[in-house]
Specification:
The structure is a single chain. Helix 8 packs parallel to helix 14. It contains 24 helices and 27 strands. The chain has 697 residues and is α/β, with parallel strands linked by helices. It has a 7-stranded mixed beta sheet. A 6-stranded mixed beta barrel has the order 22-26-23-25-24-27. 29% of the residues lie in helices and 15% in strands.
Length: 697
């Protein structure tokens, strides 16, 4: 973006940088609100302390001193594990926060680190440990002849997993690709914005992504549409996989997914014909039942079709500020990220996943006495009250803490319950680099930006909180094994250098060439895929034992004559998640320009459903699941099938009722249980394809 600064040093306008080689001037609706975020009258511009149930302003240094004392007391009394952090979306957007927070927790011997990683799409990051990773890179959207988006409304959510639609000017990129002959397959229970542009849209029954992918894989194998040479060298058990797919014949898959057989066959043949392009998923499939298994099936369909860059080819993506590794035409396995050898939760048989604990157990780890009980939580740029499953339980948990610190620019559902609220610097007030964004770029793009304006008030960056706390407690910090200076607070650039050490292009070069001129593409970061190492004989594990067992469990689920799970009988609808263009999860709900586009999360239903229930649009209903109930306002939508209801998440609070549902919406996580129907590896709860009943009010 280009930002106009007036003579007083204030930002007065911003717009897309038309000379930017990646975006060409594209900006998103939410990004255009950066000035309003920075200048908003309700923004917290200092430190607040709760005293006798009310917040009073105190100096930031005093707040940090008091937090440090209380933290040390809790460590002395309960051990390091009693101190927890939740790094929310705002923390993820400020580069050094994650490594510094995790360094702090390592130093106090606390595994109690949580993030949206285990609320949203954890299987993308962690199932590679079980399946394998192609060291040459997966086909990018840029090079695709065919693409398959599974529950990924890329024109609205603008999240681009490997092979997916890039988030910069996605509508233009998609239309250009379609005009050039791209075949687009969309698998989604809703006719989304991207589904409307698809070559083929499979509007399946919610929660049946695994069933459909299993059926498509069986067709691809039976018709020998797979990449035979690639499978011969790099797939470990194609025949075993085919045997496990035996129950997923066309009639069974058609009945269970509520799709015509012809569509399933066409989709399988279309994707297999390629020859280039990948399948990718969005939020919905991973929030639905068996999210990790669905992601495994996506990885499998990409692998058997050989959708990777081969020796001698140049992958489109080459993140300049990430560690440079020679791409090779071989399978590698990231280190195991869960299970034996990892810290165990006290609940539901879950363990650490990577260097985090699953969000599924945080409320119980707070509420349940005993060794390992969490007594302090630092909520960094997040909003657990509307993000976590089982809202009533998370409310009880936050109120039970001895110390709750929220770094938040607003009074949110979570920060209202805090003992201290620390106002952070916001985007225009800080320098930063694009390292965290590189996962979304299919070009070797990088940018280091200076701060645009002076910070307003007595604020702090999220990463500085951990440095200040560590300094007061005499705790050493390190990043990638290198010590962080502790005698005085390092600059943002110094910290970023530690995070980016070993990068393909030096941070110094990126800063020198982009800080004033804007981001650029660093072609020197590209590399040709080399041959596989002589000692490497690894193959993709398409059928590990737990996957084989899970496929059998899916096939053996009792179904009624309509193809519905018997376990869901007694409920009238399946509720699915959706995105709303003007909001990013719980962010943006207090910005006037965005609120003008809507303030509630409507319960969208097919017009026939409304007619059958005698409901008109905006009628009030109670929506109930096995876990709880919420109030909703219904709205007719032809993009859903009969029997499906769709609502956005991250709205409302425990006080959402008939009097305020229009102004603040309702939290769909009140319909979600953290104790039943969760992924056995990641702990991710069933947050979509939830069986519900609807009652008119």
């Amino acid at each position: 973006m280009d930002v106009d600064i007036d003579d007083d040093g204030q930002a007065v306008a911003l717009r897309g940088d038309v000379n930017n080689p990646l975006s060409g001037g594209y900006t998103c609706l939410r990004g255009r609100e950066l000035i309003n975020i920075q200048q908003h009258p309700d923004r917290i511009r200092g430190a607040l302390k709760r005293v006798d149930g009310k917040f009073i302003s105190i100096p930031m240094s005093q707040a940090l001193d008091e937090i440090a004392v209380k933290t040390q007391q809790l460590i002395n009394r309960h051990g390091g594990r009693s101190i927890a952090s939740y790094n929310g979306s705002w923390a993820w957007s400020n580069l050094p926060t994650l490594p510094l927070s995790k360094s702090f927790h390592r130093a106090i011997d606390s595994p109690s680190v949580f993030s949206p990683m285990t609320l949203d799409q954890p299987a993308k990051a962690f199932m590679l440990c079980r399946f394998g990773l192609w060291a040459g890179g997966i086909h990018s959207f840029k090079d695709a002849d065919v693409a398959m988006f599974i529950g990924n409304n890329a024109l609205l959510s603008q999240y681009a997993p490997a092979g997916g639609l890039p988030p910069y000017n996605p509508a233009r990129r998609l239309q250009d690709a379609l005009n050039s002959g791209l075949k687009l397959i969309v698998i989604d229970p809703r006719r989304t914005e991207v589904a409307n542009r698809a070559t083929l849209h499979l509007q399946l029954r919610p929660g049946e992504d695994t069933t459909l992918l299993a059926g498509m894989l069986r067709i691809i194998i039976d018709e020998q549409l797979y990449d035979a040479d690639f499978c011969e060298e790099f797939i470990d058990d194609l025949s075993g996989l085919r045997a496990s797919l035996e129950p997923f014949d066309l009639d069974y898959v058609s009945r269970r997914t509520d799709l015509p057989s012809e569509q399933i066959v066409t989709a399988a043949r279309m994707f297999a014909s390629g020859p280039r392009g990948a399948a990718s998923t969005g939020t919905g499939p991973e929030m639905s039942p068996r999210g990790s298994l669905t992601e495994h099936m996506v990885m499998t369909i990409n692998a058997v079709c050989g959708r990777y860059y081969r020796e001698g080819e140049v992958p489109a993506a080459a993140p300049p500020l990430s560690v440079g590794r020679q791409p090779k035409a071989q399978v590698v396995f990231p280190p195991q990220a869960w299970g034996e050898g990892f810290v165990k939760s006290r609940f539901r048989g879950l363990t650490q996943i990577g260097d985090e604990m699953p969000c599924n157990v945080m409320a119980d780890e707070i509420l349940t006495p005993g060794e390992g009980q969490i007594r302090a939580l630092f909520s960094i740029g997040g909003n657990p009250m509307v993000a976590f499953p089982n809202q009533d339980k998370i409310a009880r948990a936050l109120e039970d803490l001895d110390l709750l610190v929220a770094i938040d620019p607003w009074l949110s559902a979570t920060s209202r319950r805090a003992d201290y609220i620390l106002g952070p610097k916001v985007a225009l007030e800080r320098e930063d680099a694009t390292l965290l964004g590189e996962m979304y770029f299919e070009e070797p793009y990088a940018h280091y930006t200076e701060a645009m304006v002076e910070p307003q008030g007595d604020t702090i960056e999220e990463w500085e909180f951990y440095w200040e706390l560590a300094a007061r407690l005499s705790i050493p910090l390190s990043i990638h094994g290198q010590p962080v200076p502790m005698d005085q607070c390092p600059s943002k650039y110094q910290i970023t250098e530690l995070v980016a050490q070993g990068s393909r292009v030096s941070l110094a070069k990126v800063k020198a060439e982009t800080e004033q001129q804007g981001g650029k593409i660093f072609d020197e970061a590209r590399a040709v895929v080399g041959p596989k190492s002589a000692h490497n004989h690894l193959r993709f594990r398409v059928l590990p034992n737990d996957v084989k067992q899970q496929l059998a469990e899916v096939a053996q689920e009792p179904l009624n004559q309509l193809g519905l799970r018997v376990a869901e009988e007694g409920y009238s609808h399946l509720l699915i998640s959706r995105r709303i263009k003007q909001f990013f999860n719980s962010t943006g709900h207090n910005l006037d320009a965005l609120r003008q586009k809507g303030t509630t999360n409507y319960a969208y239903m097919h017009p026939d459903d409304l007619a059958n229930m005698g409901l008109s649009s905006e009628a009030m209903v109670e929506i109930s699941s096995p876990a709880g109930s919420v109030i909703g306002l219904v709205k007719a939508s032809n993009d859903l099938k009969v029997g499906v209801i769709s609502m956005a998440h991250a709205f409302g609070d425990t006080n959402s009722d008939t009097s305020n549902v229009m102004l603040q919406g309702s939290s769909t996580n009140r319909l979600v249980s953290d104790e039943q129907h969760f992924d056995p590896i990641t702990g991710q709860a069933r947050q979509s394809a939830i069986p519900v009943s609807i009652r008119a009010l």
